[in-house]
Amino acid sequence: MDHWITIESSIIPGTKVELMLLKCHDDFAIRIDGVPGDLMNSRMHHSEDELAKFGCNRVSSIKHARVLVGGLGMGFTLAAVLKIVGVSAKVTVAELVPAVLEWNRGPLGQCAGRPIEDKRTQIHLGDVADLLKRKSVMPQEDQFDAILLDVDNGPEAMTHSDNEWLYSPTGLTNLYEKLRPKGIVAIWSASANPIFTKKLKKASFNVQERTVRARPGKGSRHTIFVAQKD
Ligand SMILES: C[S@@+](CC[C@H](N)C(=O)[O-])C[C@H]1O[C@@H](n2cnc3c(N)ncnc32)[C@H](O)[C@@H]1O
């Protein structure tokens, strides 16, 4: 029988809630204290890899492509992006919890092949929303070809109540403005959410909902919202 042991924990900034790193044999899980289920588990990352594929399908041919990934988790989505983009790309990964970055620098890093060490990776330690709210004198320099969001279990705040902003009309408008023409926002979700699809359309995106399995060809069905700018 599997016996998961908590090996590290850290308070999520701005909350009193703990994020925990657990281990069982060679596998890891990240959990939020008091919330049932895992935020991420190293045994299942097919849908996190697919998030990168759906978000970056047009990015491989773009020189100096810019991609934003929020958050780091176990690094599977970041690693999948790095396999797709070219050598001149810059991939910014935003992670809210400093301990998650430390865990990735330690034993957790082996799960996805240490993508934070890739020279195309830039780390933003903080809220991904900070980057989306940032106003720039040269807006084109602050825009992305793809933005991939996997910070909660879907378009509802779970890790931090402030994440609600990301899925609000204002958050979606900011996401739209942070994209280059034809840019794509891809958002991971444990389930379909027709109300959120409508909100994306209202924010001017062309939207497709993709169903993906937790493991190749099997396991739970998750949804990836693929929202493209004109
Ligand atoms: C489900 S995990 C991401 C899993 C990741 N896709 C992977 O492949 O391993 C969610 C991560 O997002 C982080 N996070 C939550 N809210 C965030 C925010 N507002 N900004 C940046 N990171 C955030 C969490 O600390 C956690 O590391």
Write the topology of this structure.
Elements: E1 5-11, E2 18-24, E3 27-32, E4 40-41, H1 46-56, E5 66-70, H2 76-84, E6 90-95, H3 98-105, E7 121-125, H4 128-133, E8 144-149, H5 169-177, E9 179-189, H6 194-202, E10 206-215, E11 218-228
Helix pairs in contact: 1-2
Bound molecules: S-adenosylmethionine.
Please give a structural write-up:
With 230 residues, the chain is an alpha/beta fold. It is 23% helix and 33% strand. The strands form two sheets. The protein has a seven-stranded mixed β-sheet. Strands 1-2-3-4 form a four-stranded antiparallel β-sheet, with no helix packed on it. Helix 5 (169-177) links the parallel strand 8 (144-149) and strand 9. It is globular, with a radius of gyration of 17 Å. Bound molecules: S-adenosylmethionine. S-adenosylmethionine binds at residues 39-40, 45, 48, 70-77, 94-97, 100, 127-129, 150-151, 159-160, 163.
